[in-house]
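In practice, a research group might receive sequence data for several interacting partners and want a quick structural hypothesis before committing to experiments. The following worked case mirrors that situation: the sequences arrive first, and a predicted assembly follows.
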Amino acid sequence: MTQQPTRVAHTPLHVRGEVLSSKRIGAYRHLTLVAPGMAERHRPGTFVAVSVGHTRPRAHLARRSYWVHRVRPTGSHGATLEVVVEPTGTGGTWLAGLDQGDPIEVTGPLGRPFALPKEPVTCLLVGEGYAAAPLFPLAERLRERGCTVTMLLAAPDEAHLLGTLDARRTARAVTVVTGDGSVGAKGTVAEVAPEVVAKSGADVVYATGSHEGLHAVAAAAEAQGAWSQTGVAVDQPCGTGLCFGCTIPVVGEAGSPRHVRACVEGPVFRGDRVRWTDLRTEPR
Amino acid sequence: MTATAPEVAIAGLALASPVLVAAGCGGTGRELAALDGLTGVGGFVTRTITLDPREGHPGRRVHETDAGFVHATGLANPGLHQFLATELPWLAAADVRTVVSVAASSLGEYADLARRLGDSPGVDGLELDLATPDGPALGLFDTREPFQAARAVAAVRRDLPRGTALLAKVGHDPLRVVETARAVAEAGADAVVLGNALPALLPDGRPGGLSGPAVRPVALRTVAEVHAALPGLPLVGAGGAAGADHVRAFLAAGATAVQIGAALLHDPTCAARAAADLRGET
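A structural hypothesis for the assembly, expressed as tokens:
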């Protein structure tokens, strides 16, 4: 039977997968997951939702959503996907404690990916902490399209800085800032965004990270006349669009204020569509 | 879907399985279907639809708690018009029974909803959401008193075409549930859904409701009590069911059908799997 690839390729799956490896890098755990069929469907900016716990019935019902950091073909397990986990909170601690061979229930890929430019334009990619995870597969896609890629990576300190080595391989120029100045200049995305965005001369700015940082990047891009694509992370109870629990305040069609589901209409939004001040002041 | 004989019927509405997807936990239906979450279930209950669109509460609406969720969506929904234009056609074309959950701010609005949904192809039943926590604060017609709940049911019954099942969803209020169930049944409800969240408080202090496994023993109790008092009345149990064993427990307590809700957030395939389990397919 032949399947229609355009229709099938982006449908999410809910599978019982397995942890292929768990590696500590800095403050994070990098988990490589075997989730049959999922990695092939991944596009940069989509995410996976993980069920927390092994025993049934489970005590923790909310899913935990993770950016897909890397997709890699393996000989024996098909394509695998890698997520970056900060070992904090109930879900993160549980995930970070998993060992090779442990089963894991995963749904994905979910959400709308980053929009890719049709022309070979100049792109700036901005990532904070583990949220920088989806920018690396994005950078590869952009380079395949002939785009010039520069990056700004930020974190509170060196241990929470993700992928600076990878970044130097993929990007033409990399700026690093840390809150404590342990690597690169001292500062935050919100502080350096106007200058870095202006200097980059970017046509499109892609960003993931704190709402404060994204707000600053979106504003800097707009001031520059550049498009911005922001990956907005909020806690997602289901990640699959069922519960209407993860809302993002946006400017709807016809300019009307609306709340939309982060998991279905996002996680990637055009920066000029998000009502950032509302996002940062609404109860979270 | 397999061609097995319908296992249950409510008000002449034959259901392929006693497992239904509960209101507010299945998105628009499409999201579940994409994950094979609707395969073989007896029916899909929409999130509650009101006559006018409702933006819902801002910010975070669902919080994890021990063995459940506390939530307050503020009845976010696109309103009847948009629902009919953008969501119902997909449900009508999908291979699943569709029950539209509705709430209204007046008896006149209830009648309007009954007329317009009753005339719409693809609507197999209406579920009146009479027990939303803090319904009056959301501007809904106050159905906390059993006679008021009965008035809402009667208003819908008068205008609902024959052949469209009328389900009345009342809350797990142990002191009033039998009285309420009797009142809505006498007012014309074909079946009573014993469900909805228990009134609870969100971590930030806003009022909301508790759903999930924590509610299940309470839900089983109300099903058993109403069934004992009104044995001829078809009941739909809802509260904390996640799998076939839970569904069987509700059926044993006297329910005709069972809704799975909060568990879908955790595992979007659990209703479909429970339905398959009950058919003996696993």
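Before designing any experiment, note the following. The CA atoms of residues 11 and 190 of chain B lie 6 Å apart. Chain B touches chain A at residues 24-28, 30-32, 34-37, 47, 55-64, 66-69, 71, 73, 76, 204, 206, 212-213, 242-243, 262-269 (CB under 8 Å).
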